[in-house]
Design goal:
- The protein is an alpha/beta fold.
- It has a domain of about 220 residues: FAD/NAD(P)-binding domain (3-Layer(bba) Sandwich).
- The chain is built from 14 helices and 17 strands.
- Strands 1, 2, 7, 8, 9, 10, 16 and 17 form an eight-stranded mixed β-sheet that branches. A seven-stranded mixed β-sheet has the order 5-4-12-13-14-11-15, with helices on both faces.
- Helix 1 packs parallel to helix 5.
- Bound molecules: flavin-adenine dinucleotide.
- Flavin-adenine dinucleotide binds next to helix 1, strand 3, strand 11 and helix 10.
């Protein structure tokens, strides 16, 4: 039996944070959207997510910031410490002065909380149809739109296709064709530990802050989530350097952190090692909007996690996309081109800086000593280095920082 494809104005592939944020931004602008997600349920794997003010600004505009932050933790500072000696290298104060400058606090949320909130908001618009269990196997551009075919044989046609299908995006392959993402050689372990368990081992060195322990080819990030009941931990190692016990995840991770200070070793002992993530990215590219097809989130600009910005950039994409569609209501191809022109310089800078920051975190020997010396006199309320990142306003007035706008 031949069935005609179901037609929708906007079709989003992928119901991760990027896809749902895009659907919500489009719905807020009055557009009907259908989201196809390959998983049997919409959800998020993983634990904590750091959210900078650049993304909070967008979440606020989308009307979900209060709900997203209900169970969030607001660290008073982000502190960089030496993983081997435990020495404090520098801090970034994220309290009142930070909020005054950027308009929003820095927060950390449970991924599932953020995802569920955006999902609920999508449902409440009455304009977003969410279809799980829909793995898209094929995307076919056609005149004035695209048709996608799913694993269950269903087909959907659309005037405007937004692919939010992640770092391995098959849609990107079709548009840009730049092969597989770059494997950095690093892997991350992530999970949560009840804070009371950590407390029995001495607790966090700064219970109201976030700490990044940086060492040679490794680092550990620790911060509270769910109102301080859980500690989120992300441990990262260079598998090319720490090859001992490579066949045994737990042994390899522990061996890598063997020389670390006692606080860090405690965190690593408690780390869930059942699963790990390869850290992949790509160099910045263009060409992610072609005709009636565009990319958002990791599909468009996958980045290393070191600036904690992958999801934040996906969130920024959402309003830039909706605003570009608003500006070109009768020409989707022009809207998608405008969206890419607006986003590409910004996301390229974040992608490249994330790679650089990884180098700073993971230096060894004399590099580590130089890092300590350079950071020694930095004031914790010196925001120069992060103004471009956190002051960015993706909601309409792109290219300006908060300070420029208020000047
Ligand atoms: C260890 C680690 C820590 C991180 N920490 C942070 C942080 O603190 N802050 C931050 O902002 N970012 C962080 N990130 C980055 C962030 O997780 C990603 O950038 C973000 O999840 C990207 O969202 P996305 O929706 O673009 O892609 P994804 O989350 O990958 O979602 C893609 C969705 O598409 C679906 N899909 C894929 N293919 C198909 C198909 N063919 N058909 C249908 N559906 C499909 C998938 O099932 C998935 O639901 C971190 C990343 C890592 C690895």
């Amino acid at each position: 039996m031949i069935t005609s494809p179901v037609t929708s104005p906007f079709l989003v592939i992928g119901g991760g944070i990027g896809g749902l944020a895009a659907a919500l931004a489009l719905a807020r602008a009055g557009h009907r959207t259908r989201v196809l997600e390959r998983a049997p349920e919409f959800g998020e794997v993983g634990a904590g997510l750091q959210v900078g003010p650049n993304a909070s600004r967008v979440l606020d505009r989308l009307g979900v910031l209060d709900a997203v932050t209900t169970h969030a933790f607001f660290p008073t500072r982000l502190t960089l410490r030496d993983a081997l000696t435990g020495e404090r290298l520098t801090s970034l104060a994220t309290g009142d002065a930070f909020r005054e400058l950027f308009g929003y606090r820095y927060f950390v949320a449970h991924r599932a909380d953020l995802h569920r909130t955006v999902l609920t908001a999508c449902e409440e618009t009455g304009l977003v149809e969410l279809l799980p269990d829909k793995e898209v196997l094929e995307v076919r551009p056609r005149r004035g739109g695209a048709v996608v075919r799913c694993a269950d044989g269903s087909e959907y046609s659309t005037y405007a296709l937004v692919a939010a299908d992640g770092v391995h995006s098959p849609t990107r392959r079709l548009l840009i064709g730049d092969g597989a993402p770059t494997d950095s050689g690093y892997v991350a372990y992530r999970g949560t530990v009840p804070m009371e368990v950590l407390a029995r081992h001495g607790g966090l060195p700064e219970p109201d802050g976030m700490v990044i322990w940086a060492g040679p080819g490794l680092h550990l990030v620790q911060y509270p989530v769910r109102r301080g009941e859980l500690c989120n931990q992300v441990a990262t190692i260079d598998t090319r350097r720490y090859t001992e016990h490579a066949g045994d995840l737990t042994a390899q991770l522990r061996a890598a952190f063997d020389q670390a200070c006692p606080d860090v070793r405690t965190g690593i002992q408690l780390m869930d090692t059942t699963r790990r993530w390869s850290l992949l990215d790509r160099p910045p590219a263009t060409g992610w909007s072609q005709g009636a097809i565009t990319l958002v989130g990791d599909a468009a600009h996958p980045m290393l996690q070191y600036l904690a910005q992958g999801a934040c950039q996906a969130i920024e994409d959402s309003v830039a996309l909706a605003d570009s569609v608003d500006e070109h209501p009768d020409d989707i191809a022009a809207a998608f081109r405008a969206y890419e022109a607006r986003r590409a310089p910004r996301t390229a800078r974040v992608q490249s800086t994330a790679r650089d920051w990884g180098e700073v975190l993971h230096v060894d020997g004399i590099g580590g000593r130089l890092r300590a010396a350079l950071l020694a006199d930095r004031a914790e309320d010196d925001y120069q280095a992060v103004e471009w990142l956190y002051g960015f306003d993706a909601a309409g007035t792109f290219g300006h920082t908060t300070r420029e706008l208020s000047a």
